[in-house]
Amino acid sequence: MISALSRLGIDPWQEAGRLSSLARREAVEQLARLIAEIPGIFRPAGEAREIADRLVGLLPKHDDSRAATPQIQISPRYSRPKIPKPSQFWLACFVLPAAVLVSAIIHGGFMFGFGVP
Length: 117
Prior knowledge:
This protein has a domain of 57 residues. The protein is mostly helical and 117 residues long. It is elongated and about 80 Å long.
């Protein structure tokens, strides 16, 4: 349904919020009209209403009597491990010579410009 609404140029999350604030019958009718308009898919009106009815039943119910719930900040579970500064120095001291050694092995040895191939 998210993809279908997006193809109609409608933000699915905003539409879900809008529909959930309506009376069930009105939400079903409006969603059924949208389902019938989905390009490339033909649905008879009765089938579109059945689909809309099931989908509207899944929407959260709005209770206007309650105060707005606070927004929750979600932080990612994984964060890249931080290497302490001295360890970074020693890591660089190991990685740089290792890279030079690997390069020398791949390219056939060290060349110092003494005319020796």
